[in-house]
Structure formats: structure tokens, C-alpha cells
Amino acid sequence: MEKLSASSIVNSGPISIICYCVSSILMTLTNKYVLSGNPNYNLNFLLLCVQSVVCLLLIFFLKNFKVINYREFNSKEAKSWSPIAILLVVMIYTSSKAIQYLSIPIYTIFKNLTIILIAYGEVIWFSGKVTSMALSSFILMVLSSVVAALGDDKRSVSDLSSSASFFGLNYGYYWMFSNCFASATFVLYMRKRIKLTNFKDFDTMFYNNLLSVPILLVSTFILEDWSEENLYLNFPTDQKNSIIFSMIFSGMASVGISYCSAWCVRVTSSTTYSMVGALNKLPIALSGLIFFDASVNFLSVSSIFLGFAAGLVYAVAKQKEKAEDAKQHVLPVSQKQ
To answer: Transmembrane stretches, by residue range (predicted)?
Structure first.
């Protein structure tokens, strides 16, 4: 058998797809393990800070070995990018709170609602449009979220059920809705800034993490409890090493997602990447059923497949929209008489 060379691996579509899927699943699972594995864990800002620091160190290491490249630090660019860093912190914090209280399937399904907000935000700010097929996918997304909520018979996946609800609804849902709005605002504003700055993927990643670290550090020291008693509750002796390792590993996985996303687009196509993103929701949701104490019933399983179908329909709708736009930009060739 012919051995795989380094260049053949780097340019392999199937391998890039597998790596992208594995990295996103691993990050979701490790975050869930840290935030819900220990019911007393409450240092969310610390977790996010560790992830950002690990991400920075890893991309610095990769740049030194010429695996990736990004622009050097510029104070003027950093100042103009700082609002995005603040939005990023809001987005990842609300995400961490949502996944702490909600099961992975519920979190994954409700995350689809962000797509709707982004789509209509693009209509308002970027003269985008929503086709009938895209609208159909939005209806499926809302339906899958309603079915998921109805099937969530545990209401809370943590041991804090007595204090984790508000008007009978798990706090995680409030954090989830907040995260959807924060994510949509972050994506739309960042898209606008990228057009102005011409940032590449790793430029964006470098500035996002670099500028978010001081915000996260200040937040964890001011807003979180760093007493000896609370640190012991967050890092009990029997779980301390595994929790720290998971925090570091999730930071490495975040780099993996960014790198594998760019890799997948480069060696396949944007169509394939969109499809993979839609298909990937299914294994992520199912992993929550397998590895964590998530509700398993007809409604919860149905919501996963509805959410999967919604993502797939949306991916197809976007590709059809792109193909139609490409046709409109092709000038007709005049024929000689």
C-alpha cells in the first residue's frame, strides 16, 4: 500500500472534514465536563481565560514553525477591534452559562436560532435576502427548539434544580437566548470590521484572544469568588487534575476548530464546508445523549433530527442563493449576426 505523505494529508478533503468534526465535538464535550461535571463549578470567566491563553500560546507556537501566519500586533488596529473583543467575551460567557445548565442536545438545537437572527441582521445591515427555502429552514429550527424544550423532562441537568429555575423555566434557557442575541451581534459586527480591516482568519483569531484575555482576567478576579473554600469546591482533590487538563484541552480544541475550518474550506469547497457544519450538529447532539445525563425520549430525539434537517435545508438554501448570485453576475455574451 502507498504511504500517505505529509502533503497528501494536508490536501485531503476527507481528513480535513474528520478533523473539523472531531475538534468541535471534543471542545463541546470538554466544556460540558468542566462546567457540569462538578456541580459546584462557578469560575466560568477563569475557564474562558485559560482557553484564550492556551489558544494564544498555541497559535504563537504554530506561527514560529511557519504552520500558520497572522499579522503583527498594531495598537491602532487593537483599539478599533476592542469592541469586538468585548462582544466576544459576552458571547462566550453566555454560552458557558447556557451549556452549564442545559444538556448538549438542547444547547446544540437552540444554537440554530442564532442563524435566524444573523440572517435577518444581514437583511437589515448588508442588503441580504431570505429565500423561501431559507424561511422553511427557520420554521424547522423554531419547531425543533420547541420540541426540544417539551422533551426536556429533566429541566435542569445540574444538581442546582432548586435554584436553577425562574418562573418554572431552567436558567439555561435565559442564558441560551442571551447567547443567541450576543452571538448574532458579534458575528454581524465582526463581519463589518473584517471588511474594513481585511483581516484573515488567524488575524481575527489572534486579536480576539489577545484582547479578550485582560477582560476575562479582570472579570474573574472582580466578579468571581477566589477564596480558598471556593477554589476547593471548584477543584476538588479527586477531580483537580482532570478539570485543569480539560480546561487546557478545550483551548487547544478551539484552535483546532479554527484551523480545521480554514483547512476544510481550502481543500474542499464552501458548499462542502456548509454541509459539514449542518451534518456535524447531529453527532454533537448525540454525544450529549451518550456521555452526559441528557433526556432521552421521543421528543428529545425527534428535536435532534429536526434540528439536523433544519441545518441541512439552510445549508442547501445558502448554496442555491450563492449559485443564483453568481449567475446574475455573469454578463451575457453577445452573438455575432
So the answer is: 12-29, 41-62, 83-103, 109-126, 133-151, 171-190, 202-223, 243-265, 272-292, 298-317
- Residues 227, 232, 235, 238, Cα dihedral to 10°: 170
Q: How many CB atoms lie within 10 A of CB 40?
A: 13
Residue 166 lies in a domain: yes
φ, ψ for residue 169, nearest 5 deg: -115, 130
Longest dimension (CA), the chain: 88
C-alpha cell at 148: 426540544
Q: Specify the range with the lowest mean pLDDT, choosing from 148-157, 232-241, 252-261.
A: 148-157
Reported as a single tens digit per residue, the pLDDT across 284-296 is 777 777 766 666 7
Residue with cell 427548539: 145
Q: Write the CA distances from 27 to 23, 32, 265, 304, integer angstroms.
A: 6, 8, 20, 19
Partners of residue 169 on adjacent β-strands: 166
Q: Which residue, 29, 180, 24, 26, is CA-closest to 91?
A: 180
CB 287 within 8 A of CB 304: no
Residues 6 or more apart whose Cβ sits within 8 Å of residue 145: 109, 110, 112, 113, 303, 307
The alpha carbon of residue 304 and the mean position of all alpha carbons in its chain are separated, in whole angstroms, by: 17
Domain-located, residue 80: yes
With respect to residue 2, please indicate whether it lies within any of the assigned structural domains.
no
> What value does the mean pLDDT of the chain take?
79
Predicted TM-score (pTM) of the model is 0.80
CB 203 within 8 A of CB 70: yes
Give pLDDT, residue 336. 47
Domain ranges, residue 59 = 16-316
Q: Which three cell numbers stand for residue 201?
A: 482568519
Residues facing 165 on adjacent strands:
170
In this structure, how many other beta carbons lie within 10 angstroms of the beta carbon of residue 167?
5
In this structure, the strands spanning 165-166 and 169-170 are antiparallel
How many domains is the chain partitioned into structurally?
1
pLDDT band of residue 156 (cuts 50, 70, 90) is very low
Residue 7 lies in a domain: no
